[in-house]
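Per reviewer request, we include the raw input and output of the structure prediction for the construct analysed in the revised manuscript.
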Amino acid sequence: MTGLVGGIAGQLLLPASDPAGFRPFCIVAIIIAFALVPIALIKAVAPAHEGGGVRINLKGLYKQSPFGLVAASLCGVTTSAFFALGPIFVQRKGLDTAGVALFMASGTLGGFLMAWPVGWLSDRLDRRRVIIGAAITATASLFTMMALVPDEPSRWILYLCAAIFGGTIVPSLQRGNGPCE
């Protein structure tokens, strides 16, 4: 959850400076450096690696959990596509830098708000049904944004669609809380 809050705050800081300049990268580097301080202060010894070069066997993994492998792969493709292409999409819809930042933060906020309910559902219902329900909801919100939203849409409709979409794909990133675990 801390990572999601950091992601939301980072998106909202985008309009605070020129994204084409060098300053935002310096600020991020400083924040990452400070975030590493508590880890660097830990005196624990790293565990020895006993695997000795074990490679992932995708065929074996697919045999063990076909739905899991396919769902995890689709979750990765979907999330990376959203975070890579979402800003371009809303920029072409006419949003400025602040609007793009709010759009992307809305997607992460939706994931933040839905992480617990989606995780709760996936613990109590058949996880496959929860994944399929999340995929249908994500698809519906995407179609709403792409097909039903006019060329100059209300920003709030885009933000709502991003929050719904993020609410169905971002919880899959949270270990132990999402349907794609």
